[in-house]
Every structure is written in structure tokens, then in C-alpha cells.
Hints:
Helix content: 40-55%
CATH topology: Rossmann fold
Bound molecules: NADP nicotinamide-adenine-dinucleotide phosphate
Number of domains: 1
Oligomer: single chain
CATH superfamily: NAD(P)-binding Rossmann-like Domain
Strand order of the largest sheet: 5-2-1-6-9-10-14-12
Order of helices and strands: HHHEHEHEEHEHEEEHHHHEHEEEHEHEE
Amino acid sequence: MKVGTRIKYVVMATAVVTFLSRKPSTAFVQQSRASVATVSKGSTFLRESDNDNNNNNNNNNNQNEAERLRAQAEALREQIRKMEKDLPQDRRRPQPPAESTTASRPKPPTSLLDNRRVLVVGANGRLGSKVCRYLLRQHPELKEVIACVHVVGENSDTSRGYGRLSYEVGAEEGIGSIGPAWSSSDERTASFEFNVETMTDYNLQKLRVVECELLDPLQCNSIVEDSQADVVVWCATDFNGNRPRAVSGLNIAFLFRAVTDPTKGRVEVEGLQNMLGAIKNVRQDALRRDRLFGNNVDDSGSAVSTTTASSAVATKPVDVLLVSIAPDALEDFETPFGTFLDQKRQGEEMIPNDFPSLSFTTLQFARYEDNFVGEDIELNFETVDKKSNPDESNSRSKNVRRINRRDAARAVGKALTSPELQGKIVQVWTDELK
Ligand SMILES: NC(=O)c1ccc[n+]([C@@H]2O[C@H](COP(=O)([O-])OP(=O)(O)OC[C@H]3O[C@@H](n4cnc5c(N)ncnc54)[C@H](OP(=O)(O)O)[C@@H]3O)[C@@H](O)[C@H]2O)c1
């Protein structure tokens, strides 16, 4: 053995002795014991031991990785929470509903009109204004009554404002002040302040007034769209009784319109058609939107389901309640555009024939008599059997039937909340002449 080699062994032996004489740490003891065992038990054990170490290392690595991912996920969640806080309210993720308590549970619906918007067309008319009054006072469950009034042009002969409506709904019963005619123009005004004592039950906060020319399809469309009405109650007419207003009132403006612009059409036919077309368009748009955004709707959309399935009990009001006249309430009258009754029947038939997707109830009222027929009398509803021979149904004279307009307004409210009247033409009266 060379001298250099011997010195090397001595150095190594000294190093081993020094190493073994040190007080070992626990980890070191375990490690060294494993090494001893390794030597004594041979190579197989050596491999197992190696595996254990590897497994331990792998486990440690996996745990570290899992910790890291968990921390990363939590950081991302925190980031999302911060971003959501900065979003505008309507774009936030819907939160799961809070645990329902008796107080927060929605109230059961009180009627088909619960939380609905009703658009009354012809709302400044003699019947329309009373319908608005009745709905506001007797159906506070409604969300809104939208009174659609006719204003052709300011300061024109055809502009009637909505004085009758404001009177009927009680808007003028507030604490009022009227400036004397001889005072300065600033003081020559009338104002009515809300009177809590008398006006609270009038529910005027639920009344919205909109203006519309029914012979203009674009106006009809925007009124139906903007108002978001669930139901349209049609009380408009261009007749005073059975005579065109242009004739009965010798109204120059109406006569002028009839002569110069006959294509404008008739309120009972073209006007109604414009309104029905608008309702249909708006319903279809809503249906398309619902489909696009995956809301749960059936093929029939919101409207059809109420009437076409006659066996099913309707859970929502009709799309249209059409106010019309019983065939024998008034005599027929010839006009350049067809007879009075012919125009009324055309309007009635238009809904089922041309707009089958819209649900409806048509009320054929008896002749109105506001002075000699009492109010609050029992309402009679008689469904018209379309299959029966019209001559037969007319053979019993019905021209003795009458109804007060206030009761007619009550009948409108009753029909809107009666699912059994949906899809039907119904004659309505309260009294008969002796
Ligand atoms: N008379 C009867 O004995 C009798 C019986 C049964 C049923 N009915 C029917 O009951 C319904 C209501 O009758 P009513 O006596 O209340 O009629 P009304 O007082 O003459 O009311 C009709 C309303 O329709 C509005 N109107 C007319 N043309 C319009 C247009 N182009 N655009 C927008 N609005 C328009 C009128 O507004 P402006 O006045 O501001 O123009 C008026 O407010 C009618 O369908 C009628 O045929 C009548």
C-alpha cells in the first residue's frame, strides 16, 4: 500500500470516528438505523426502503402542490368577489334565495289581476273613465292602470284633454285652489293637492295617463310596448250611440277628417286592428326574448295558453277585453264605411279570426242608461252561443235591456277576474224596461 493511500484511509477513519462520536439528532438516528438494517437485510429491503422514501417525498410534494392550488383558488375567489362588488346591481350573479320565513314568503294571488298592468283605451270616454275609477278603487292588487286618452292636437277641436277621467277617478277632490279670473296670469291657475283623508283609497298613485291616436299603428305599438300592459280594455268608439260622432255632434273637425282622409279608417275596425297588431307584436317580441335567454316558456307564449285550452283553468287575465254592444241595443245606422252594427261585428270577429294567439273576452252591453237605471244592481251575464241561429236568438226581444255605465264598469272588472268568461262573447245587462 502506498503511503499516500494509507494517509487517505487514516483521514477517512478519523472522520468516521468523529462523526459517530457526535450526539446524533433524532432524524439522523433514524436514518442511520435504516442504513444498518439495509446492510443486514440485503438488497430487497434496500429497494423497499427507497420506495418508502420516494413515497414520502411524493406525498410531501403532492401535499405541497395541493396547498398551492388551494391557495391559488382562494385568491381567485377573492378576486371574483371584488369584481362582483364593482359590477352594477342588475348584472350581479343571482344570489340563492334566503331561507324562507313566513314573513318573506310571497302572498298567494288575490285575483287574476294581481300585480298586472291594465291599459284602458278610450279612458276619457264615459265608460272608459268609470272603468279606470272602478279598477283603481276595487282592485288595489293591480300594479298599474294606464289610461290611454285621445289627444289629436293641442288646442284643436278634437282635443278634449282628460277632464272627464280626472273627475271620475277623484283627482279633483283634493284640497283645491282656483285663482280668480281678474288676477294676474301667475295666480290665475287651479291646483289640487292630495288629500290624505279622502283620497287615500282612490289609489291614484297607480294611475298613469298616456296619449294615443288609435288610427296610427306606430302610436299603438309604442303605447303597448312602453306601458308593458298585461291586459288591454277597449272602450273606444267613434260613434255617439249608433251615429258617427262627426254626424251626431256636427263636429267640423271629425267631418273634415272623414271627408279628406277616409283612408284613416274607422276606430272600431282599423283602430282596433292597430291595437291588436301592437299587442301581438309586443307579445311575440317578449316570447323571442324569453327563448333567446332560455326562460321557461311553452310554444304558445304568454297569451294563448289561457284560452285555447278550454279545459285548463286560466291563471292569468285575457290579453284583450273588448267592450261592444248587443245586436239589439240600438238601431242600425248607415255610414259611408258600412253600417254601425256591421262595424261592431267586424271588430268582434277580428280577434278570434285574425289574432288567434290573443286571449279575449267580448262584452256586448245592453243600451246604456245612466239616469233612469239604478246603480249597483245585480249583473246578468249571458254567453252568446255562436252556433245557434242568429234569427232565433234575436226572436226574443232584448232591446228592453239596460245597464248603467257604472255597473258596466263593474262588469268589466268582474269579467277580467272570471276565468270562465275567457274566449267568450257575453251579453251583459242589469235591468229591463217594463
Ligand atoms: N251608447 C250605448 O248605449 C252603448 C251601449 C252598449 C255599448 N256601447 C259601447 O260602449 C263603448 C263605450 O261607449 P262610451 O259611451 O263610453 O263612448 P265615449 O264616451 O264616446 O268614449 C269613447 C272614447 O274613445 C276615444 N276615441 C275615439 N276615437 C279615438 C281615436 N281615434 N284615438 C283614441 N281615442 C279615441 C274618445 O276620445 P275623444 O272623445 O277624446 O276623441 C272617447 O274617450 C263603445 O264601444 C260603445 O259602442 C254603447
